[in-house]
Amino acid sequence: MRMRLPTFPLLVRCRASLLLVACGLMLGKAPSLSARDLDDHFGIPQVKFINEQVAAGWADAKIKPADPATDQEWCRRVHLDIIGRIPTVQELNAYVADSSPAKRANLVGRLLGDDYVDEYARNWTDVWTTILIGRSTENDNVNRAGMRQWLRRAFSKNMPYDRFVTELVTATGVNKSGEKGFNGATNFLSGKLDENGIQATAKTAQVFLGLQVQCTQCHNHPFNKGKQNQFWEFNAFFRQSRALRKFEGTRDVQAIELVDEDWSGEGGNAAQAELYYELRNGQMKVAFPVFIDGTAVDPTGYLPAKMDDGTEYGVNRRQALSQLIVDSPLMPKAAVNRVWSHFFGYGFTRPIDDLGEHNAPSHPELLDGLGERLREQSFDVKELIRWITLSQAYSLASRITKPNASDDPAVGEKPKFSRFYLRQMRPEELYQSLLTATEADQADDKGEKASRKKDEWLSQFIIAFGTDEGDEATTFNGSIPQVLMMFNGDLVKTATATGKGGFLDRVATAEMSNAQRIDALYAAALARKPSRKEISLANQMMVARKGDAIGALQDIWWAVLNSNEFIINH
Amino acid sequence: MSVSSRLVDGMNRRHFMSHLAGAAALASPATAFTNSILANATDMKKRHKAAILLWMGGGPSTMDIWDLKPGAATSGPFKPISTSADGIQICEHMPLMAQQMHHMSLVRSMSTREADHMRGRYYMHTGYVPNPNVEHPSYGAVVAHELADQVPDLEIPPFVSVGSGSVGPGFLGMTWAPFVVDSNGNVRNMDMGIDPARLAQRLEMLSAIEDKFIGEKRGASADDHAKVLSKTVKLMTSQQMDAFKVMKEPKELQDRYGNTGFGRGCLMARRLVEQGVPFVEVDLGGWDNHADIFKTLSDTKLPELDKAMSALVSDLADRGLLDDTAIIWMGEFSRTPNINGNGGRDHWARSWSVAVGGAGFKRGVVVGETSSDGKEVVTEPYSSQDLMASVLKSLDISLETTFTAKNGRPMKIANAGKVIKELFA
Asked: What is the pLDDT of residue A505?
């Protein structure tokens, strides 16, 4: 039996943009994509290729994919994955109302287009800042703001990925914004050149080539083909590079200037600039710059210059390296694997940045084929994102059914992508989604200032291990501290505040029924309507709060934001 | 089982409400009532096993701490000193620990292969080398999982990590994840600031949403979320949170542990073990000494370690807790016998030492030996899994235990490591 709702004095003074659209119309049904839509690849051959390859994997494993996700589910996930936040109620309703058969392609087009360019850049800047310098690194050698400024520009103009890699690997200049000669890209390497650039070597190979070489610094790899000489030959490419400290007054480091200089080698002969490394048995060996595929570069330590007679000589080793990376077939594969795992929660290998021969991918032809297609597409990452998000696999529901139950990468199986695997939002996504749900993402708080605030909030979850490698972990992993933060933390306190003009106040004072208010909260956070049971509980809370409507809404809103359904991308 | 009932973890809803109401009463100024309950709790406390892992992040140079090689070309400048244990000598910069060595034993014949920080950290915490397809449970998760039944009234998490975050619970699930706190014992965001009745209503609403989502069969993480919610609610209303408050200890005792993060962490570990927590890990980082190692060790790292560790050992012994509490001191690996050009030592896993004591361990003995330059183990070498098996044995945990990983594979506890016999009488 439905309880009679207490009535509230309605102040008709709403900022109703969200609320009016939330009032009912679109969210009643959960229309699914038709089978015809699924068969469709929107006329994009790369999407067709993905669909065929993934489907072949299903056939081999004798599994059937899940049903398509509902419009609301798909709309929520594509916003989260491309721009790093849940959709607003307006965005959700506009998508659900769209009856065009190409509606998915249209939405992806919009999210990748001009309207969302700032949000796209913000999201991918977060993702890549973590990859390049981690979530917590900020010291004399690394300037987060500088790194982010460069990344924001790169993603705002959709810099081709080969260019992106080249600029990061070859960067010279000053790492701090506002300084003369500023180049934010220097922050990738500026903190990794100590101790002969061991970290620069390991990280460059890992991030851009999917090669784990850190163990081979000291010895041949025990169970893959990695050899110690390869590590040091790769390391030789970084030996002309210096991170010079620019001081303010006499003490404080003001900025780092990353430069390349002539290098005379450890043997003192710049024409044959060599380095030495030690084998386990104490024997010393020599290394010159040689790429992992065996391509050797002129061993000179001189930078390019001209002699008086016009003869050119010298090599810029980092520039030579970046060209070898860009030409390597591993480079687009590493990029594809990373982007794919961003959208599906799993890449083709585990971990995603280990493409060594010992680690066979789940879909080798798909990985190779997408890598080739990315190169053909001039390394346009937005196109890669378009292909992935319009694939059939990405459109599936997250539900486990009998015909796909065996596809469970969480227990160690190779992923078959026969359903959308649940995954918790990244902390940055949660942060941004809370701002969106409460319409608090105001224009006056964008760019670096907003990033600082987010960093500050994030720091509560970061554990730095204090090693030279800058290893870190996060407690934003579904454990108690995370739940406590959602229960009682400042961010959620703000999101559930009842102050005048705030989100809950606007819901409470808009001209609508209590049922519509509850609908509005569910639409904003969960992109769905409340169930019968949820409505009945919500009504009980209205009664319990004895006319304190906004207090009841606060309780409901708190519950919605704390739910598994809110924080898990599904 | 519905999530509502899961949220209150076995209690029926009325019981749950009274639990919350009780918490409210305790929070009120009726301290007489509070004190009587606390007094009862102390009386009822039973003996239980526990372990404290002192984790030395970065890889400490054990040949400068526990296994000195005076006169060797590889030796640093430190001199060995005699200790309270017959025949055991340790570094001169550990004078307080030297007085406690009769409570501890050394294994000088550790020999492992993982000399990368993250891999070594994982291996020494789990007994397994990293494997992309399965996550193994760490010491804390295994011990908590095996000993939690001893302390049915424990409301705070059974695996607490002070500072470092440790390594996760792997296939044992988030229930056994480390609860990470800072060394001041502050747990963030504990207070919702609303009355318990209202909290209960919020939780009921929340349960309905959790239930619905779980019912839609989308995977284990939906369920895991609900389980952690339930534990969080328990924690928020628990008096046992007091165990984190090291400032409640006498000033004198605090001074004995040292006014450092590690000192406070060790003191907190003792309070937590007293409260019933089966596993506490305390982190002391800063051992990745690739440069200028000897000054760093003698000026900062060793004094901090010496003060806190010796206070912990003697405090546990004084309170009669040491016989039930294992202490393990280790890092992910050690450092090269050869001193590098920067006056530092690099990563080295082939020959190194750990220290253990308490619980069922034999005390005051040295196991194994390294060569005169420290580069080789000349006796039987021991691995991470051997050490883990020995720690579990000292806690009377059966080594016949077999877990089932998520993929259905059986996994022997401690990776079927062999007990280090010399550590037992």
From this structure: 93
Q: What is residue A17's predicted lDDT score, i.e. its pLDDT?
A: 45
pLDDT band at B132 (very low <50, low <70, confident <90, very high): low
- Of chain B, the percentage scoring pLDDT greater than 90 comes to 68
All structural domains of chain B? 48-191+240-423 (3.40.720)
Last residue within a domain, chosen from A263, A297, A317:
A317
Cis? peptide before B95, omega within 30° of 0 = no
Please give the structure tokens belonging to residue A519: 């609908």
* Residue A11 maps to a domain: no
Residue B11 has pLDDT above 50, yes or no: no
Q: How far is CA A167 from CA A170, A295, A321, A543, in A?
A: 5, 21, 12, 61
**pLDDT of residue A1 exceeding 70:** no
Rounded distance, CA B6 to CA A75, Å?
Answer: 31
The count of C-alpha atoms lying within 13 angstroms of the C-alpha of A364, restricted to the half-sphere facing its C-beta, is 6
Given this model, what pLDDT does residue A218 score? Answer: 65
- Best of A213, A536, A564 to disrupt the B interface (most B CBs within 10 Å) is A564
- Shared domain for A191 and A313, answered yes or no, is yes
Q: Judge contact between A333 and A355, C-beta under 8 A.
A: yes
Please state whether beta strands B159-162 and B279-284 pair in parallel, antiparallel, or not at all (unpaired): parallel
Q: What is the pLDDT of residue B187?
A: 81
What range defines the domain where residue A219 resides? 185-317
pTM: 0.80
Name the nearest CA neighbour of A335 among A353, A357, A320, A323: A353
Number of domains in chain A: 2
Judged by DSSP in three states, A175 sits in: coil
| Total beta-carbon pairs less than 8 A apart between chain A and chain B | 182
Distance, CA of A265 to chain centre:
39
A543 Cα to chain B: minimum distance (Å): 11
State the smallest CA–CA distance between residue B6 and chain A in angstroms. 14
Strands B402-404 and B179-181 come out as unpaired
Task: Give the domain-ending residue among A286, A317, A348.
Answer: A317
Nearest to B133 among A350, A399, A460 (CB): A350
**Res. B243: pLDDT tops 50:** yes
Contact between B163 and B282 under an 8 Å Cβ cutoff? The reply is yes
Cα separation, B232 vs A483, whole angstroms? 7
- Note the pLDDT tens digit of each residue in A429-441: 999 999 888 877 6
Mean pLDDT computed over B67-95: 97
Q: How many angstroms away from the CA of B47 is the closest CA of chain A?
A: 27
